[in-house]
Structure formats: C-alpha cells, structure tokens
Amino acid sequence: MGSHKITSRTPGVFYHRPSPDADPYVTEGAAVSEGDTVGLVEVMKTFHEVKADAAGTVSAFLVENEDEVTIGQDLVELET
Amino acid sequence: MSLSSVLVANRGEIALRVVRACRELGIRAVAVYSDADASAAHVRMADDAVHLGKSAASKSYLNADAVLEAAKSAGVDAIHPGYGFLSERPAFAAAVEEAGLVFVGPPSSVIATMGDKAAARALARSADVPVVPGSDEVSSVDEAVAAADEVGYPVLVKASAGGGGRGIRPAATADELREVVVEAQREAASAFGSDAVYVERALQGPKHVEVQVLADTHGTVVHCFERECSLQRRRQKILEEAPAPGLSPEMRSALCDAAVRLSQEVGYVGAGTVEFLVEGEEFFFIEMNTRIQVEHPITEWVTGLDLVAEQLRIAGGAPLSVAQDDIVCRGASIEFRVNAEDPDQDFLPSPGAVEGLELPGGPGVRVDTALMAGDVVPPFYDSLVAKLSVWAPTREDALARGRRALAEYRVDGLPTTIGLHRRLLDEPAVVDGSYDITTLETWLAGRSP
Fold first, then answer.
1. How many angstroms away from the CA of A73 is the closest CA of chain B?
2. I want to staple A49 with a disulfide (CB 3.0 to 4.6 A). Which of A37, B65, B362, B377 is the partner?
3. DSSP β-ladder status, B5-8 and B28-34
4. Biotin carboxylation domain spans which residues (chain B) (predicted)?
5. Quick check: is B291 catalytic?
6. Burial class (CB within 10 angstroms; exposed 0-12, middle 13-18, buried 19+) of B124
7. Tens digits of per-residue pLDDT, B324-338?
8. pLDDT tier for residue A52 given thresholds of 50, 70 and 90
C-alpha cells in the first residue's frame, strides 16, 4: 500500500462539489479510478476539474471546500 | 446635494478609474479590498480603505453584507459598484437604497427590469424598439411552420427552458423545420423536462453595436453615440472601437434614438449601455447593461466626456453637464483588452507575478490599469488586467497608433492578449472594419496548430 497526492495544476479556489447544492465529487473512503474527477478549482472565473492521476482510495482531503490553493499544492491523498 | 464621499465597491482598473474621478471632483474615495489586494493600486491611491474579507470574490467583493458594513463604517454617502461583482444585482442596489445611501446607478427596480430577459423584451416593444423576431411557444410542427413564416427564414428552434446555447437547432426552409422541430421537442423534453420550443429568426453574422446613454434624475436622457464590439470570443469582447465603421448615418441615428427611447421608457438614471445586433438594414435590441461599461474610454476619447464623473454628478442630483446637441463624435478610438490569458493555450487564465512592465505612451494613448511592475495578478478575479485605448483624427491613423502602442507594450512574467491584438491589427477584416460577431472565433479556429 502506498500513498499518492493529487495536486492542483493551477492556483485558485478549491471546491469539493460541482455546484453549491450538489453532492461532493468524492468522499473519504471512496474508490477512484485514474481520470475520475475529485474536485474543482476556480481560476479567474473559469472552472477546471481536478482529475485523479492514479487509482486508489481517498484517504484524506488536504484542503477544505472553498480554500485558496496554489499551483502544485496537494489537494487529495489516495491510498494506492 | 453633491456627494462628499463614495465607497468604491470594486477592484482593479475600474476601482482606480472611479477613485481618480472622485479625487478630481473633490469627493473622498474609500476603497475596499480583499486579502489578495491589500497592497493593490486602487487601495494605495484611495483616501481610505476598508478590508472586506478573504481573497475569494464570494468572501469579499461579492459579499453584499460586507460591502454595506464597510460603507457604514467609512461613513460614506454613496456606493459606486463599478462593473461586474455587485453592479447589476437589484437586491444589492435595493439594500443600498434601504440603508439610506446613494447607489451610483439606476434605481434597483430598473436593474431588475432590464436584468429580466422577457421584461426587457416587452419594454423594448412598448418603446417601439425592435427585438429579434421570435414566436411564442409552439406545440406542433404546423404551428412551428406558421410561426417561421411570420418571423422569416432562416430560423432557430430553441427550447423554452434551455440556455447557454443548448437545445438550439437551425432550419433554413420549411422542410428542414418540419424535421428539426420534432428532434428539438424530443431533445428539450429529455434535457430540460419540458418539450416547449419556440422559433426565432437566425441572424447570419450580425454586428454587435451598442449605444452609450446618460440620464439624470431630472428626466433628461442623452446618447453619447455608439461603440462597435463585434470582436468577441465566447461572448467576451476583446477589442472595441468608436465610431462603428461602416455604419450608415441613418442606422446610427436610428440606434441612438432607440437607445434614448428605451432609457426613457424604463425611467433610466445614470450611465447605461443599450446593446443591439445590426444586420443589413435591420437592428435588434438584445440587452441593456445598467452600469459603467468596460469599454467606456473609447466613448470618452471621441466625445471628450468624463463618463464616470457624469455618473457621480448624476448620483449627487445634478443635471447633466451637457445637452445632446453639445455631444459630438470626433475622430476614431480603439480599445484593446489586455487579459492575463494565454491565446496560444486556448486562453488559459495566467495569473502570476509581473516581473517587468513597460507601458506605451505618447500622443493619443491611454492605459487604464491597476497593475504595476512587481505586482502579482491574483487567480481569484476577472482576467482583465489593463485596457489600452488610442485616439486619432481618422480610423486609419487610429489603427497605426494602435500598432505603434501595442509594439511598445511589454508585460514580462505572464502571457497576455497583447500579441493577439498585434496580429489582429493585420487582419484584413479588422483593417477594413467589415468584421462581425463570428469573425474572431472563425479566425482563432483557423489559426490553431
């Protein structure tokens, strides 16, 4: 068992869910495949999906919903 | 009563623009700022500044309660919303009014009316201003064909519950229409939960032309001529010019008259912009922007007016400083929007640090920006970081001046749209002014590697 961190490709604001009223993309303990969307980063009024770049189980969110993030910042930890 | 102090509820170049107008009028200007903007130019140049909250727009410039609180703590008598953020939210304008403050803009009820597509269309009809011909909802193929005969081919079949370009199908003839109506109804039912569709005339590459108006609280409305804004990508303007090239004198006066009629009909107050689509000998109202417009400098260049100062005077209850007959359009002006975006990567936003900056200057050149060398463009807000505008006695000279100024403009550290503008000024359709609302996207698609 290893661990893998999904990072942000752009600075901005991180969201757990596609819209304020929607369910989160993933929750802790969920299994994800490579390419699954695990969050959203808003940069300059445009939205970019954060994709899992490995398969695994979500072990922790490293940022809160609506947290400000920087480029390369760790967002989600996976157990691989 | 003239205003003595104003809260500038915005950031970036437009906040700085309003701060400057306040200072020239002897009005105390109070800036607001988020965490990311603590040392921004609009804060440094204001008389006072109030912190709103965290960097995200929803926690700062879009937080109406925080802005109202800032206005109360700063003891201002008015709030200028700039453009974007809270500027066209009727609930915010109403809250400002209820707090006993002056909202620099029209009454909240006018913002509400013009922000409602159906209400604005109805208002235009009652002011005898043409709208894009369209039908009521149709429930059968025969009804659709009858409706299309009235509005004229080619048509678009649109889902009543649709939006953002979804659920739209074109038809050039009645035979085509008979086929697509059925498809459109089926698609609308599955996508939007309602099979209601309507028929609207399909325009074939119209021009986007808008008219600047000013209205005071004494019932006087004037126009300040038009702006040509057809160069757009995903409905975002990138370059604007005044006057609109190729517009006949008859069309110009018809547009300006229609804008004034509409503004009178709705009881408009302040600076506003009435947007039209122009195709051939016809024009159609699309919407009114109830605030100062990004591209207002080109109107200031050709008329000599200070539109933001007019807004502040109007808000203080003064009559317009000019009569319609005194407003003349002289020469030609072009604005180039400098966005922190990479045109070579599908306009990916490019926030980051500005390592070096050289601004153009010389005769007939104006740069509206809050961005200074060493600043960081934050990722939280709009990508517009500067507006370069030029003026010259003729359009040809204005194009030459634009090329010269763009060649001088240098931003190091992040990609911008400056290079795109340099290339656009060599495009034949831009040089001869024949471009329409399809030109930029067609050109960008053909340019892609």
1. 14
2. A37
3. parallel
4. 2-445
5. yes
6. buried
7. 999 999 999 999 999
8. very high
What's the rounded Cα separation, in Å, for the pair B207 and A11? 36
DSSP B303-345: H---HHHHHHHHHTTPPPSS-GGG----SEEEEEEEESEEGGG
Among the listed residues B11, B291, B313, B395, the single catalytic one is B291
Can you tell me which residue has the tokens 């010259």?
B392
Q: Would an 8 Å CB–CB cutoff place A28 in contact with chain B?
A: no
The tokens for B133 are 């011909």
B413 shares contact with chain A (CB less than 8 Å): no
Q: How far is CA B85 from CA A67, B39, B107, B213, B344, in A?
A: 20, 20, 17, 21, 28
On whether any CB of chain B is under 8 Å from the CB of A68, the answer is yes
B349-407 residue pLDDT tens: 999 999 999 999 999 999 999 999 899 999 999 999 999 999 999 999 999 999 999 99
A44 and B351 in contact by Cβ < 8 A?
yes
Report the Cα A4 to chain-centroid distance in Å: 12
Instruction: Tell me the residue type at B20.
Output: R
Q: In chain B, what residues touch A66 (CB-CB under 8 Å)?
A: 56, 58-59
**Residue B250 near residue B257, CB atoms below 8 Å:** no
B353 contact A CB<8A: no
DSSP state letter for B182: H
Task: Give the residue from B19, B11, B25, B31 showing the smallest Cα distance to B87.
Answer: B11
Tokens representing B251 are 């069309």
> What are the distances in angstroms from CA B319 to CA A80, B41, B217, B272?
70, 32, 7, 16
Using CB atoms, which residue from B341, B380, B382 is nearest to A13? B380
The answer to whether residues B368 and B394 touch, using CB atoms and an 8 Å cutoff, is no
- Please state, in angstroms and as integers, the Cα–Cα distance from residue B446 to each residue in A75, B71, B341, B442, following that order: 37, 49, 19, 6
Quick check: A11 and B351 CB within 8 A? yes
Task: Note the helical H segments in B166-230.
Answer: 174-192
Write out the two tokens for B429. Answer: 């359709």
Q: Look up the pTM and report it.
A: 0.92
Range list of β-strands (E), B382-422: 384-392, 410-412
CA angle A63, A69, A72 (to 5 degrees): 100
- Write out pLDDT tens, residues B134-171: 888 888 899 999 999 999 999 999 888 776 566 788 99
Q: Which residue of chain A comes nearest to B339, CA vs CA?
A: A44
